[in-house]
């Protein structure tokens, strides 16, 4: 009777969940009743939030909402099918064209989420026997994509170009792809893109940049980290970014040479076997692209808020990290300290998320503070005043 000893999968999962609840690491869902710019209403409380990725303050822009409503009224809500069946609409095509032009790429291809875009790219390009070299702090979906592809995944210490070079050199006969976040999601710093591009050129390696946190925020007219680094499609043939962060929508795209995009359409399973994003959402994202390009004041305002926060935090001796982006983490170390800080901030009407392992390495729990053009100076000052009351560890510097 082998079957009688077979473990029950849900019971095993429940045991894992219980073990996590005993640690400092359980994750919990909280339902927001209403969002009004950076203000969130939950359970009768109104909290000033510093945890959204709405860096340009576009998520609630009336022009985005109007585009969404217009196309939903005219075309319906759902796309009704995958892109390759009958789900690919004029709104998708127009958005893809605008994204390609903005990022200086030959073509762009929409995916329903960034997670799927990264799985789709890596699973299509890489096979068993290939090497995928990645920064240790890359987003989870880049790591998962390399694993799904069956490629050999080598992770180099954060931003260590020499270590990446050694990893590539040790596998010099294999086809290789090097993938990095443009702006790192939990640290807020920027990848050494120019050095990585030089390395990839010497090593005949395809460079992929995930610019989820750079597009819209950095570069000329918000064209992103790759543009800001002065790199072209030739240097970075694989550019991926999302529509759910600075653009305030949802979805993602991959941009690059026509041969890449054609190949993804043929072979990328997360592209082929899923329902196309709603055309109304594509129309809203196109509106967001136009605003992100033309309204430079949003980037200027965000930069001023970032500078104000860093100046204030430095004066208070807070444990800032080396970030100039909208992501301004305070490194606290222990998970319980990060949790306690979040709770104390909430008691003062502020919502800042505690990021704990396994999202970040053990001993590097932090408050992940994000700023947005939707914030005002008084909001930043209020955050600083609250942080001052917490008695956080002072920075080493
Ligand atoms: C958010 C994020 C993704 C995933 O994008 P979604 O559209 O939210 O699935 C991928 N990469 C990075 C670096 C991200 O921050």
Architecture blueprint of SSEs:
Blueprint: H1 9-22, E1 34-36, E2 39-42, E3 45-49, H2 62-75, H3 83-87, H4 90-103, E4 107-111, H5 114-125, E5 131-135, H6 140-149, E6 152-156, H7 161-169, E7 176-181, H8 193-202, E8 206-210, H9 225-228, E9 238-242, E10 252-256, H10 258-267, H11 269-272, H12 279-294, H13 296-315, E11 327-333, H14 335-347, E12 350-351, E13 353-355, E14 365-370, H15 377-388
Parallel strand pairs: 3-12, 5-6, 5-7, 7-8, 8-9
Antiparallel strand pairs: 1-2, 2-3, 4-10, 9-10, 11-14, 13-14
Helix pairs in contact: 2-12, 4-12, 5-6, 13-15
The structure holds pyridoxal-5'-phosphate (PLP).
Task: List the defining traits of the structure above.
Aspartate Aminotransferase, domain 1; 42% helix; 15 helices; binds pyridoxal-5'-phosphate; alpha/beta; globular; single chain; 397 residues
Give a verbal description of the structure:
- The chain is an alpha/beta fold and 397 residues long.
- The chain has 2 domains: 32-56 and 296-388, Aspartate Aminotransferase, domain 1; 62-294, Type I PLP-dependent aspartate aminotransferase-like (Major domain) (Aspartate Aminotransferase, domain 2, 3-Layer(aba) Sandwich), CATH 3.40.640.10.
- It is 42% helix and 17% strand.
- The protein is built from 15 helices and 14 strands.
- It has helices spanning 9-22, 62-75, 83-87, 90-103, 114-125, 140-149, 161-169, 193-202, 225-228, 258-267, 269-272, 279-294, 296-315, 335-347, 377-388; strands spanning 34-36, 39-42, 45-49, 107-111, 131-135, 152-156, 176-181, 206-210, 238-242, 252-256, 327-333, 350-351, 353-355, 365-370.
- It has a 7-stranded mixed beta sheet, with helices on both faces.
- Helix 5 (114-125) runs parallel beside helix 6 (140-149) and helix 13 runs parallel beside helix 15 (377-388).
- The longest helix has 20 residues, at 296-315.
- It is globular, with a radius of gyration of 22 Å.
- It starts with 8 loop residues before the first helix and ends in a 9-residue tail after the last helix.
- The mean pLDDT is 95.
- Bound molecules: pyridoxal-5'-phosphate.
- The site of pyridoxal-5'-phosphate has 14 residues, from helix 5.
